[in-house]
Amino acid sequence: MTYDVSAIIASDAFHKAQNTLRDTHDLFVDQIIELTEIPAPPFKEDQKAKTYAQMFSELGLEDVHLDEVGNVLGVRRGGGNGQMIAVAAHLDTVFPEGTVCTVRREGTKLFAPGVGDDTRGLAAVLAFIRALDAAGIETEQDFLFIGDVGEEGLGDLRGIRHVFTEGNYRDQIAGFITIDGLEPEEVTTVAIGSLRYRVTFMGPGGHSLSNFGRVNPAYALGTLLTGMASFDVPDTPRTAFCASTFGGGTSINAIPEQVWAEIDLRSEDQGELNKLDAALRALVEQATVRENGRADTSDGAITAKITQIGNRPAGSTASDSKIVQASLTALAHFGFAQTTGASSTDANIPMSLGIPAICLGSGGTGGGAHTLDEWIDVEAEQSLRGLYVGLATLLGTAGAANV
Question: In this structure, are strands 84-90 and 142-148 parallel, antiparallel, or unpaired?
Fold first, then answer.
């Protein structure tokens, strides 16, 4: 049994797996195209999930099923020691229902919304399974392969959150790798936590002239936004805040009865995130009190409601952990830089629970993520180098029994 990535890469079995990745690269590209052209807007991933489940079944995974929230799961048995390494890519994209997802191909470049984020990751997971099977590689730990829902935006990591808090395998997962993004040089080992809120101020409303002097929720919102601009947050650990979207009011000549703003708070450190959260809540209270003290409340006072619309916990994976060292060794072997970084991905959930986890790019290059002009380059040599890193990382984490 070996977890030595260099020894694994040097083995005949790994070379056979590499040959399989190379020989089936055209199939890999075809599956990127097939999966990209199945829409998976937020909270509506079911059509893509059914196709992905069929692909898992065709590859011979065990216990292939869709769970209660729509994740696709399948198991590749290893040494049977009861522990699992979970490997995931997310099914959803950021694009709303009705977005045209037809792939346009120009040479080795593929253009379509969602083609890189994260459809290439989904196809990479399939490629890893094919290569492991073709090479007859047995692993010490079982693999739990996942196509998960709800990674993007207001999905709030609901798919992986379910896997680790309510899923059938939650007590068996010893490590987690999410295949997300392209260039693998920067391994995500720090989870940027975020809290997202809709803050709503409400009041009696009224005519802009006849009821002039009455409390106005828009002014309370203005006080909140001005106060936020004065928040002092540290550069290290990296911490940030943003007032992002706004709404309310009914007419140019009416005092609004309701106004709202959506707010994003982020930090690499959960403690700093908690401080920022407390500061926001205190400021909402201050803005409410100030407006009620400024103007007439005889027909009703300003009230405020804070509604949480997102909660991604912060966390980290130790740099000396097996899963991180496996990825860095694989990167070095295949000529990539070895760096670690911070991001907000599916790995946030296991990191916050103390389970070793990373996010790793699947290879190739691209651009325009989260835009209608998203593209990836599937030129074989660069694409395959990234896939080799991914496969070696998987094996260095789960252990190879017969190499």
Answer: parallel
